[in-house]
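Q: Could you fold this chain for me?
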Amino acid sequence: MQHPVKVRSGGEILVDALKIHGVDTVFCLPGESFLPALDALAGAADVIRTIITRHESAAANMAEAYGKLTGRPGVCFVTRGPGASHAAIGVHTASQDSTPLVLLVGQVDSGTRGRDAWQEVDYPAMFGGMAKWVAEVDRPERIPELISRAFHLAVAGRPGPVVLALPEDVLGAAAAVADAGPYSRVAAHPGVADLARLAAMIEASARPMVIVGGGGWDRAACDDFQAFVEAFDLPVAAGFRRQDILDNHHPNYVGHAGLGPSAKLAARIRAADLVIAVGGRLGETTTGGYTLFDLPRPAQRLVHVHADAQELGRVYQADLAINAGVREFAAAAATLRPTGTAPGWSTEVKTARADYLADQVPGSMPGRLDLGAVMVELRASLPKDAIIANGAGNYAIWVHKFHRYGGFRTQLAPTSGAMGYGLPAAIAAKLIHPEREVICFAGDGCFQMALPELATACQHRAGVVIVVVNNGIYGSIRMHQEREYPGRVFATSLENPDFPALARAYGAFGERVEETAAFAAAFARARAFAAAERKPALLELLIDPDAITPSSTLSGLRAAALAAGRGTGH
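A: Sure. Below is the predicted structure, expressed as structure tokens.
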């Protein structure tokens, strides 16, 4: 239905379009290139909340986390040139994580385009390899059309990011134009024959395994997927950082096929005679560097369900390729039922589950503070719906290995491996779900990439608890350095600030924890502060740098590398 035509500025047309598409929050670092849009946002403050960050990368990461949590496109405003460059990290994460995101970028005046004007960038060239669509508005009359297309594309098929550039003069110009209607999601559905063949392949197998992942899930899809799993009593492994699609407390959940997977789970995937990959791309990390399956034809029979037809057959050739959105597939699969009696693999599912639980018992680690014991404490004390956010670094292996995620959107973590993601994502989560506890894990290097967002959390009253794992090094890089060049440590040591004092300077809570026994009480104080003051609370955990993964040490890796003849050491 056409809405009434009225004369408005391009900025007003844009913000009216955002309201029509259901936008309730935008993440932004202001810039003079989109002042008319900022003014229109001020006039729409009763409908759209504008969250002001300290860096464009944080704004983009918050918008990406919003897309993950809600299934609706996260919206981010940044200025031209440097602002867009800083926001590129969020676009890359949204691309790799299949998250709907709309990045709105200020652009130079149309009359100066093509002259390499101040901060001018060719955005299609810049973002073309990452975004689903990149365009520039050429006149205000087209804003409703192009915003509609952006939202439709962000959620269609495999969700992802779109980028729309907004020249200054276009936002400031007046036009009489009708508004478009709200966007709708379009996705492929599985065919009847495909579903029948899937059921037949399951019943013909002896050792099935499901690997679940990808973007586009919502709570109903997770419930439908669980019903499908229960009907056939299938074991389920989560793809890299997709551990919240099936509640980890569920008896059919058998582990995480990500960084540091259990040897028994990897062996089960290799030994499976049928692998059903639902939603995920079967990327490098989930497949152990493309070693769990033969290329291009896996030894296991493979069913691959994916929202993007171009992804099917891209790396692995499937015996049954199903082009379907995860919501549509899960709803259809939930109606399937086995024709026979209890499957022969039910005992093996119980064994796999027992192995997963046994793998969640951490061993000891060097130093006075045991991160495995910290994770066990958190697992016992946090509510099931707590949201755990983290960026990238070896510290995250403890989180993914020992925490039990309670179901849909209790995990926010970038499959793109982006450092600096955890704190912005946690802030976004707390703003969206103020009633839920939100915990951010970050390494000392990872945290400092987003440290100024402590001010954002304080300003917007986001009471997150931040656990900074401080080992004084870029741990992941040091690990690889010791494996390849043992003893030749270079460019991976960090001289860090006093994190608790810095947190207190921002108006947040800060406390240092140096031994395991002190953690529980410190965490209780942090939680109480965050809840009462609605401000962030930071705990700095001092970790022995030798403890590089839950099952290895740097000194052990160095010794093994030297024994193998790599490097000479110092």
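A (continued): The mean pLDDT is 94.
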